[in-house]
């Protein structure tokens, strides 16, 4: 069973999520009087702020590009969680909430360690939680920056979330960065982008094919393998300004006391969040001369590649 350690404090998100849901339903009802609209051209715009997401509540299925602008003063990302058939955001509150509540209290208070946290989640979570699918999203992104990612989505109910922490250690998700999104049966007219580079993720390595160069690069990310438990393999692009990979890697682990706590040790430039094995996601990166690294959140397993642009 895959341990969903990517969803800290989801129970506390429920109240916000439910409110957002209700607001979304109201908007849908208002729009019902209008003729069915064709899928909007161009990317799905996402505005991330301290601490909220703004995006359309319904988006097409098929290949979909998201463009996120970080208007806040802290790093943000978004991860798309697809809910299992028949499960609602309310189920998180009743079935999953208590499990995360117990585990995170233990971690915060220091009464349990990371190893115990995983085992504890495994014991406490309902079986259906293994069917939540993590379906990509924009990687960590520094304040003031914009990033794009493209993924192929099935129709269904999704939750968009960011679980970066504030300087005083509160999850952005807890403070409002959670948004229900419906992926409709209406299919986008988009195709998969043509990549300049490709990255293949296994549990052993982050393998880059192609040579990064200056300017805008489209990167394909092939999810060839994912761990059985815990965090999934993904790709974040970071510029190595004033911090080393050795400092950045532990910062990226939310289970560390200082992990994912704003500010980031170096500027993150986006990337793509994890997807199931066999899927491919894409992201755009604009590179200028400097030192960079592609890093997975599971970098403890050495999924890191440094590179330089002359
Ligand atoms: Cu955030």
What do these coordinates show?
With 310 residues, this protein is of the alpha+beta class. It contains four helices and 16 strands. It has helices spanning 10-31, 89-109, 114-124, 245-251, and strands spanning 44-49, 52-54, 58-70, 79-82, 133-134, 146-153, 156-161, 178-187, 197-201, 206-209, 215-223, 235-239, 268-272, 280-287, 290-295, 304-309. The strands form two sheets. Strands 1, 2, 3, 4, 5, 6, 7, 8, 9, 10, 11 and 14 form a twelve-stranded mixed beta sheet that branches. A four-stranded antiparallel beta sheet has the order 13-12-15-16, with no helix packed on it. Strand 15 (290-295) and strand 16 form a beta hairpin. The protein is globular. Residues 1-38 have low confidence and may be disordered. Copper (II) ion binds at residues 76, 162, 164, 172, 177.
Features:
globular, twelve-stranded mixed sheet, binds copper (II) ion, 20% helix, four-stranded antiparallel sheet, 32% strand
